Amino acid sequence: MSRNLNDLFGLDGRVALVTGASRGIGAAIAQGLAMAGAKTYGVGRSAVPDGTLGSVIYRRCDIRDDVAIQSLLDDIHSAEGRLDILVNAAGITLPSKVSENPSEAFRETLANNLTAIYECCRLAAAGMKVGGSIINVTSIGSLLGFPGNPGYVAAKGGLAAMTRALAMDLGSSRIRVNNLVPGYVHTAMTAASYDDPARREARQARTILGRWGVAEDLVGAAIFLASDASSYVTGTDVVVDGGWTTKGL
Ligand SMILES: NC(=O)c1ccc[n+]([C@@H]2O[C@H](COP(=O)([O-])OP(=O)(O)OC[C@H]3O[C@@H](n4cnc5c(N)ncnc54)[C@H](OP(=O)(O)O)[C@@H]3O)[C@@H](O)[C@H]2O)c1
């Protein structure tokens, strides 16, 4: 039985790596894990001005480059002697309808949003010990049909399924693997629909709570999945969508 809240949710002494940490949801989660006590590393391809991410140690790295990811993991193990938490928040969207024959967009999205994440999971899990936690940021697109972006929906659906498969394979090592499932969140990725009043209102109306999410809305659930508070939770979805997937009328 935990003696206090910090035993349950605190991440003191843990080491975390967050991909997609240069902005948006990944940046908010990286800062949240650091706030909860984890020594936190973040990666993205963009340069981020010093201090933007608080105490998060940020390194430029493309998750599609598995040699660079392995080198980063080696550096983390040399410096910290461990890795406890991996959050896969890196993702792209290349909207394009199937009628436009966007094979390249489809392949590119799967390579970035699914295959590269498998490699990150595989390489990181090899160095994790009992109690490790992998959090894959999927989407309500992994649960529902959305138009105009078959590659994104396929990649997120595949990622959600991969999470369940990895939870099975890594469970005997007591490494947990879960999906963190955002609804519509106002970030650079969704700026085009947020900036269009009709599309913004349509998406807001789909939620029970009557608003878009902000990146910080994902932080509490990420800390839960990273911490001992979720020590009996694996292979499942934690949905943070303002009620989008529950709402009927
Ligand atoms: N916003 C939403 O409504 C929403 C809803 C559901 C799910 N999601 C998912 O949540 C995650 C974060 O999305 P967001 O809204 O925060 O989007 P965002 O603001 O566009 O951020 C995406 C992040 O992923 C990084 N990234 C993409 N490809 C990368 C690569 N190959 N290597 C390294 N970093 C890479 C980007 O960094 P660089 O550009 O610097 O490389 C950036 O940090 C994504 O997986 C997205 O699919 C978002």
UniProtKB/TrEMBL annotation:
A GO term for molecular function: oxidoreductase activity, acting on the CH-OH group of donors, NAD or NADP as acceptor
InterPro entries reported for this sequence: NAD(P)-bd_dom_sf (IPR036291), Sc_DH/Rdtase_CS (IPR020904), SDR_fam (IPR002347)
Single Gene Ontology BP annotation: fatty acid elongation
Listed PROSITE patterns: ADH_SHORT
Organism domain of life: Bacteria
Pfam families the UniProt entry points to: adh_short_C2
Cited PANTHER family: BLL7886 PROTEIN, SHORT-CHAIN DEHYDROGENASES/REDUCTASES FAMILY MEMBER
Entry similarity comment: Belongs to the short-chain dehydrogenases/reductases (SDR) family.
Protein name in UniProt: Gluconate 5-dehydrogenase/2-deoxy-D-gluconate 3-dehydrogenase
Organism from which the protein derives: Sulfuritortus calidifontis
